[in-house]
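Thread: "does anyone have the structure for this chain?"

Original post by V.I.:
We have the sequence but no experimental structure in hand. Need at least a predicted one for the grant figures.
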Amino acid sequence: MEQARGLVATDAGMQVLWHRKPFSHVVDYDSWDEELLEDAGIMRHIEIGSMVPLSTGMDGAWEFVVRWGDEAALTETEQRHVVVSSEPYLLVSETDVRVGGIEHITGNAEDDEGFAVPLPPGRWSVTTHMIDADASGEQLDFVVLIKPGTAGERYRTSEQPFERR
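Reply from O.Q.:
Generated one for you, tokens below.
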């Protein structure tokens, strides 16, 4: 199991896990606007597995841990302090996977914000877990687990990773 960690900010209400190649043509605000401003564009990328929504829809900055591999799992402390978990999302990657605010998706590596996830190419199943950082005593808000996808697995396609209660 491997892991990457970072603080990720957004002013657009959505942190995402994304694969750069499907966004290689996004090089300025106009191309970003055309691809991702409308819900239909966001939904298309979620459905094809080029982007996974990770957060609650609020602006701000949160600490993310991303773990990947067959053994990717929550720690015992994290398990005790999970507030809510998402259903699995599809991520299809070749190279260059990142976590960042949706407004920072770009095909220009020099413009990157957030952090890299050196995930091997493949078809992946992604779940996000919101952690009660105050109760756990850790500087950690979300744990993202990435495991190999399985044939026939059904994936969530909502822009909201968590069911509203």
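V.I.: this helps a lot. The chain has one domain: 2-148.
O.Q.: and Residues 19 and 55 are 17 Å apart (CA to CA).
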